[in-house]
Design goal:
The complex is a heterodimer. By secondary structure, chain A is of the alpha/beta class. Chain A folds into 2 domains: 136 residues, Nucleotidyltransferase, domain 5; 174 residues, Nucleotidyltransferase, domain 5 (2-Layer Sandwich). Chain A has 13 helices and 10 strands. Chain A has a 5-stranded mixed beta sheet with strand order 3-2-1-4-5, with helices on both faces. Chain A has a 5-stranded mixed beta sheet with strand order 8-7-6-9-10, sandwiched between helices. In chain A, helix 10 runs parallel beside helix 11. The two termini of chain A are 21 Å apart. Chain B has one domain: Glutaredoxin (3-Layer(aba) Sandwich). Chain B is globular. Chain B is 34% helix and 27% strand. Classes of the chains: A alpha/beta, B alpha+beta. Chains A and B meet through helix 1 of A and loops of B.
Chain lengths: 354, 92
Amino acid sequence: MSANRHILAIETSCDDTCAAVVDGEGRMLANVISSQHVHDRFGGVVPEIASRHHLTQVNAIVAAALERAGLQLEEIDLVAATQGPGLIGALLIGLSTGKALAAARALPFAAVDHLQGHVAANFLVLPELEPFDPPFLCLIASGGHTLLAEVRRRDRFEVLGRTLDDAAGEAFDKGARLLGLGFPGGPALERLAREGDPRAFELPIAGRRAKARGGGAGGGTPARSFARSLDFSFAGVKTALAQQLRGLPEAERERRRADLAASFQHAIVESLLDRVTQALEQTGLDRLAVGGGVAANGALRERLQALAVSVHIPPRELCTDNAAMIASAARFAPALEYPRYLHLDAYAAGEGTR
Amino acid sequence: MSDARPALTLYMHRDCHLCVEARADIEMLQRELDFDLREVDIHSDEALLRAYCERVPVVALQGRELCDLHVDNPLLREALIAAGAARAAPES
């Protein structure tokens, strides 16, 4: 796709209303993100409220993206939108808006998988960062998803492992709530953890105990087969934190909050590190890309940067949900001509490996 | 303080689950405080539909909007007491 072609993309899979314009060579011309802080008081995203806010915001956000790119809708060559996975009502707003904008001008339309979008954030051409091309291993860790993907082409990925319960970012938020830090709690937990000792409390790192007992080499119990896999689990560490808190007298609990936060963060980061290291060994890849909101965590970044591989972490606004990554993925996705996309529906679950 | 029971209006839509939750919250409050509740389906009036379409449930007390999307229980209780809602008679 040439530089003078323009892709308009919309992303509304959770609680951020996003629109972006990217040119045919992957240069970002506009990337507008409107976050819905209305959910903070509920301690989590309320799907119905997220959908309503997308509905009220999406036209203005698309207009703002076009304005920042200095373009009119008539100058757009391809429209793209996230099809899934995500909150179904929220996805439908962005997908329907994208289809309608494309149909109104008989433009082609590309339906993009949200996780393929996180992978494709690495292909964007940025002034401060070279694009990162396959092959690479990609860790995506956010509030809604945690998975490891092997990326050997720009239009697809293979899932090597995924979380069996909570996502890493969800674990951070739930841990933060247990520590009384409000929602979303990831950044607050990280700030508190800086003042604490990560080894003060020994919280479980999923898979390590079974592996220490020989699970990495053989054996057939679920714990051992989990240890050998590249899957993640964060429910155990969350329960362990809740039990630690219950077991401590109130004054002690208050005095040691920073140690608890640091130990909790340490367990999550080490668990992610274990799987990344295993996956690099198994695939023979020596390049790693990271996406999702958890990529903003300083302790994780430090540990990943220390690995003896080339590590690519896009800027924070391209790690969290955004539409520039959807436009980037659309450069390599099959586009449907009008009116063949009108029947397309959103999907709530499942990773879109093609 | 007036002798009249305060009048609460719940602007709602019959297929809205947030509205169902809001009504349940208000009914809980009616066990504690004495006030009138009037439900208005926003589809009954074009102007209401335009004003409240993405915001229902909207709760208004004596014509003043108090909260939307959900019921802020502490705020509503405080407003009702300030508007003169007496304690409800205990259920026998």
